[in-house]
Amino acid sequence: MMFRRFFWLVLVILMFWNFAQAKPEVKAGVKAGEAKGSQDADQQINDFSLSGYGEKGKKSWDLNGKTADIFDDVIKLKNIKGNLFSEQEHVILLADQGDFNKADGKVHLQENVVITTSSGAKLTTDTLDWDRKNQLVTTPDVVNIEKENMTTVATGAKGQPNLNKFTLEKDVTVKIKSALEESKQAMDLMSKNQVIITCDGPLEVDYQHNVATFNNNVTADKGDAVIYCDTMDIYFNNTKDKSAPKSAKPQTTALSGNKIDKIIAKGNVKIVKGENVSYSDEALYTADDQKIVLKGKPKLVIYSTADFKQAFGN
């Protein structure tokens, strides 16, 4: 009897020992963390998806990854696609990999990061932090933003995910092309019909109010004249066809959309046009008549009367 009890006791101990040493079972879509860099993960999931819902149970965002390594405090994703849904705009975020923080819900994206919006804007960069609760995206890296006829390159960015309002920190270069018809003649004139603006930064862009504000060591080169100043406000005039039916798709080609309405330069303003130079505290340039009005202690150094008349009128 004693031997039989001892036999069953040993058998039970061996069963529990084997169970404790067994590896997790691999199920459909779930693997043990075997990939390099994920050995310490609790598990790896294929086709991972997270979603958030707003009022009345309507989906407001989702986040998808081809694979996900799940840790205690973070989920590491690969081949990421995120969506932000609203009545005004649909925003898509793409990246090769990133992290989802379980505690605060923030997302860090890296490698080939791209934001595209249904209104035609596109941002590319190397890394991006997405704060869903505050509707904010930030990056310390070089960014390239394209929207309608405006292309911007800078270092460091912060703004709304829909790119309607954002700030670029430093080393800013903006190219604004004229809204010309797409023809061979227009393409030939393209390089002559654009304004190139640089500044040390920051640059604040508000597409909702059609204004961009450049700060610190601003230079605007419009081909036939160059403007230097401390700060510059550029106002856009929406030129989209208002007669088009609402059901028609918006035109988002490189030369469509907004054109410059006016430029207001402030602080140590210097304008060079040909051989002539002007100095003032403030200058107003209006695109319709292509005239410049100087304000605040204006000073003119004129070498060419023709250039003077063309710039400031008769």
Can you give a write-up of this model?
This protein has 314 residues and is mostly beta strands. It folds into 2 domains: 29-118, no CATH class; 132-314, lipopolysaccharide transport protein A fold (Sandwich), CATH 2.60.450.10. It has helices at residues 2-21, 184-189, 305-312, and strands at 30-31, 43-53, 59-70, 74-85, 90-101, 107-117, 122-131, 136-147, 150-159, 165-177, 194-199, 203-206, 211-221, 226-238, 258-273, 276-286, 291-295, 299-301. A hairpin with a 4-residue loop joins β4 and β5. The radius of gyration is 29 Å and the shape is elongated. It starts with a helix and ends with a helix. Mean pLDDT is 77; it is low at 6-38, 180-191 and 240-257.
Q: Regions with pLDDT < 50 over 5+ consecutive residues? A: 6-38, 180-191, 240-257
Strand content: over 45%
Sheet of most strands? 18 strands, antiparallel
CATH class descriptor name of the largest domain: Mainly Beta
Radius of gyration: 29 Å
Element-level helix/strand string: HEEEEEEEEEEHEEEEEEEEH
Task: Give the overall form.
Answer: elongated
CATH topology of the largest domain: lipopolysaccharide transport protein A fold
Task: Specify the structural class.
Answer: mainly beta
Salient structural properties:
314 residues, 55% strand, 2 domains, 18-stranded antiparallel β-sheet
